[in-house]
Amino acid sequence: MSVWHTATTVWDAVFQAGFFSNPAVHSAAIVGAMVALVCGPVGVFTVLRGQSFAGHAFSDITSTGGSAAVVIGINPLAGFAAVGAIGALAMETLGAQRYRGRDLVTGVVLGAALGLSALFLYLSVTGNSTTGAVVTVLFGSIFAVSGGTLPLVAVVGGFALVLIATVYRPLLLSSVSPELAAAEGVRVRTTGLTFLVALSLAVALSALTIGAILSTALLIGPAATALRFARSPARAVGWAVAIAAGALAAGIVMAYDSYDWPPSQQGWPVSFFVVVLVLCAYVLPLTVAQYRRRLARRRARRRAANMAQVTTDSRDEHASAGGSASPIAAG
Amino acid sequence: MRSAGAVAAVPSEAGGTSPAPPALQVEHLSVSIGGREILRDVTFSVAAGEVTGLIGMNGAGKTTLLRAILGLQPVSSGRVAAASGRPGRRSIGYVPQKVLLDPDLPVRARDLVALGADGARLGIPLRSSAKRALVEELLAAVDGLALLDKRVGAMSGGEQQKVLIAHALARHPRLLLLDEPLANLDLRSTQETVNLLARIAREQGVGILLSTHDINPLLAVMNRLVYLAAGRAASGPAAEVVTSEVLSKLYGHHVDVFHAHGRVIVSVGEEHRELGCELGPEEECGPGHTAVATEELMATFARDAP
């Protein structure tokens, strides 16, 4: 009886009144599930290929698309995705020939993109005086996703998943060694471009959820955590999806709860919770592993000390049998 | 560029003079990159079941030749004909020198070898017990079964070499190309790799072509060699090719060939570059390594010799 009572109290405290019937929560859950599904596989390949810098560049590029969309008055996700895809093509055509050139090109494209988004955000603020749009584009809000955006989310996410699933094996092989992949008939460049497009779409979805600036957190964090302990690339994909989904779900619940928190009765941003949870998921296993290692080392030292004690004792006995006091036993 | 269709299948019942068709036939191959002629009129063949060494100093065109055979390098003239393997399978297996991978990444030997079977195909791989058995069989064939679950990025050069060979053999190629497989190995791994390659050639009937700048580890197992110098090639048994007469003609100036303690030292004119280059793990037979007196070299090798 009391156990049941405690459980329901905790349940009600965590999932506050109206949580499950709130339409904003419903669409947030659907968007969150799709984002986690896409960010898992795309994130794992981003980390495997060492392209997290490109992912970061996309987050800046998508902020351009999002802010442009606000100025024009179209769906931000359409802006995120369109400009991201154009950015992917631009990065590939400019920098694909030389591997070392890739980072430089990314850097140059990135600077231009941020400049443009500064212009668009300036225009949107001075034109419509909607400062809310700036915050939504840069820091996102999964609760602000309108029901009408859901089909577009499904299309963008589905397309990104199809792309990744199609090139999964050649992409994995060329991530291990582009040279080996090329020798075995993989079109390394086409594969890389396909991945870049999927990456830009994943960043666009992530930007919709937690904002353009933070979007790589959801992409890289869960994947990096998963790759740390997963046994194979395929399992890492599954774990990354699970971690991203977990962080998003917990973030949505916490943000909903935070409407009652100080300082104002407006609720804290979801993006904040999601990013913090992703960071915790990355850091906690590391800390635990470090603690365990230290514990094991201490245990080993104690065991070694005990062993030394045993040998000392036996030597001591031996010495006593010999009739002379051992200086070690005295100490 | 050579397309897959241009890889002429060597007819299996040709003449009956030779017991097996060659795994690879290169005829009058010339390659130019950026107006510079890298390979000129190169002709040789690799027999099935034999180990052929592709010998040459750094910059002699070994990598370009391997890339041309793989179809990755457009050729200006000549022909590359690789014998087709089993129907529907790729005829050439390729082993790169090294795979650069973060040791933290969970790409295990079994993942990489499985990609050898179907890595170029589109779609998500499906797990099957047949595939798992194939991967284990391939790794066992290179004495690498213990590496099954080891991460590729965390392997030593010799271990990686084994896994990459298993990867390359996954589609049962008739020809195996290896780019400098001995370059990053210590003496023991070198011997192991050489013996392993000889065994694979013999047991699986694969023609093996491996590039190297050190001829000596191969002397015991190598059936023939292709010697590249200044973009041209001489091929045949080692004893016939690595002679002062043949190499002098190839280089276009006088070249000395010494034999010391079962090792071969080639002294190329003023630069005194030698093939038995083992002066140190970092030391390469590049243009930077010059003017070492022949007597000194021989003394070095005498100390190394068993």
Describe how the helices and strands are arranged.
The complex is a heterodimer of chains A (331) and B (306).
Chain A: H1 2-14, H2 23-48, H3 52-72, H4 76-95, H5 101-128, H6 131-139, H7 150-176, H8 178-183, H9 188-210, H10 215-229, H11 233-257, H12 270-322, H13 327-330
Helix pairs in contact in A: 2-7, 2-9, 2-10, 2-11, 3-4, 3-5, 3-6, 3-9, 3-10, 4-5, 4-9, 7-9, 9-10, 10-11, 10-12, 11-12
Chain B: E1 24-33, E2 36-46, E3 51-55, H1 62-70, E4 77-82, E5 92-95, H2 109-118, H3 129-141, H4 157-169, E6 175-178, H5 187-204, E7 207-212, E8 224-229, E9 232-236, H6 238-241, H7 244-251, E10 255-260, E11 263-268, H8 294-304
Parallel strand pairs in B: 3-7, 3-8, 5-6, 6-7
Antiparallel strand pairs in B: 1-2, 1-4, 8-9, 10-11
Précis, in short:
Chain A is an all-alpha fold and 331 residues long. Chain A has helices at 2-14, 23-48, 52-72, 76-95, 101-128, 131-139, 150-176, 178-183, 188-210, 215-229, 233-257, 270-322, 327-330.
Greatest interface and its participating residue counts = A-B, 30 and 33 residues
Which percent range fits the helix content of chain A? over 70%
**CATH classification class of the largest domain in chain B:** Alpha Beta
Q: Structural class of the helix and strand makeup of chain A? A: mainly alpha
**What is the terminal separation of chain A in angstroms?**
61 Å
**CATH fold type of the largest domain in chain B:** Rossmann fold
What's the number of helices of chain B?
8
Succession of helices and strands of chain A: HHHHHHHHHHHHH
CATH-defined topology of the largest domain in chain A: ABC transporter involved in vitamin B12 uptake, BtuC
Shape of chain B: globular
Number of strand segments of chain B: 11
Strand line-up of the largest beta sheet of chain B: 5-6-7-3-8-9
Largest sheet of chain A: none
